[in-house]
Amino acid sequence: MIDRIPIDAVGVQERVARLCTRSIKKESKLQALDLALRMMDLTTLEGSDSEGKVRQLCNKALHPYTELPNIPSVAAVCVYPNRVALAKSILKDSSISIASVATAFPSGMSSLQIKLDDVNYAVSEGADEIDMVISRGAFLSGEYARVYDEIAQIKEACGTAHLKVILETGELGSLENVRMASDLAMKAGADFIKTSTGKITPAATMPVVLVMLQAIRDFHVATGKKIGMKPAGGIRSSKQAIQYLVMVKETLGNDWLDPSLFRFGASSLANDVLMQWVKEKTGRYQSLNYFSND
To answer: Is residue 2 assigned to a domain?
Structure first.
């Protein structure tokens, strides 16, 4: 059903190294920072998530830095299913999407029926996007048809909500497996493929993301369908974010430089992007203490 494509790991590393040497001028840097912020999914996925914490995150999504009101808002806020309705009530008059993790996040170790119930509940509460995790144990055991069928059924349960499929690449063991899981997820109906839950290390890495972007490129050539990409976890600096945007542009082209097709799942990245954005606009650095710690 899914072919295993050999990956030249050395070639991937060399390509990443070349991409990281690209020089970005000031005007382009400001455009990239603006874009990175608009592509961000602000996320809180802790057992300690309270109503107050979700409210604070939603307010930051709406107004990332109140001292400069022309700073753009983010793409989405991502929460657990039981916090979707609250986030929806706060963000209902904005363009910010509500994303929810589901399918026994982050382990995926549950029955298909429980996973479907999880998705149905999140959608009924108002989720615009569902971030599901694949069954890594099944994938690594060669049960590819099972993984495919789960994704396809969860896609159907999403209805009009977009489906992001989390591969948890840090557990897949090789770039060949990353490519195979990417191809499988896209063929099963994913609207986005996503690197990680952010709960294990390593999370997003540039070689892994490059392999996933190449899979998206080849899928688009074969089918005409544009699949989105979301690196999540481990991206903490504006410099890293801009390097990822260069990779997207040179691998997939300008169409993917849009929040509808590329997202950053890295809340810790937001403050560094804001700090650099303010510096580029005003010529002055602000301390991280000036930005809310979400």
So the answer is: no
Sign of CA dihedral 120, 122, 127, 131: negative
pTM above 0.90, yes or no: yes
Count of structural domains, the chain: 1
Residue 4 lies in a domain: no
Read off the CATH number of the domain in which 190 is found. 3.20.20.70
**Inter-residue contact 46 to 83 (CB < 8 Å):** no
CB 73 within 8 A of CB 61: yes
User: Considering just the CA atoms, what is the radius of gyration of the chain in Å?
Assistant: 18
Closest CA relative to residue 163, chosen from 197, 124, 200, 123: 123
Please state the φ and ψ torsions of residue 129, each to the nearest 5 degrees: -140, 145
What tens digit of pLDDT does each residue of 234-268 get? 899 999 999 999 999 999 999 999 999 999 987 77
Longest dimension (CA), the chain: 55
Classify 288 in phi/psi space as left (phi over 0), alpha (psi -120 to 50) or beta: alpha
Task: Give the residues of the chain that fall short of pLDDT 50.
Answer: none
Q: What is the pLDDT of residue 37?
A: 92
Residue 111, amino acid: S
pLDDT value of residue 176: 97
pLDDT at 268: 79
- The 3 state secondary structure assigned to 138-163 is HHHCCCHHHHHHHHHHHHHHHCCCEE
Residue 222 located in a structural domain: yes
Is 127:81 a contact under the CB 8 Å cutoff? Answer: yes
The Cα angle at residue 76 between residues 73 and 78, in degrees rounded to 5: 135
CB of 130 closer than 8 Å to CB of 150? no
Range of the domain at 133: 9-290
Q: Would you please indicate which residues are annotated as catalytic (active-site) residues?
A: 131, 194, 230
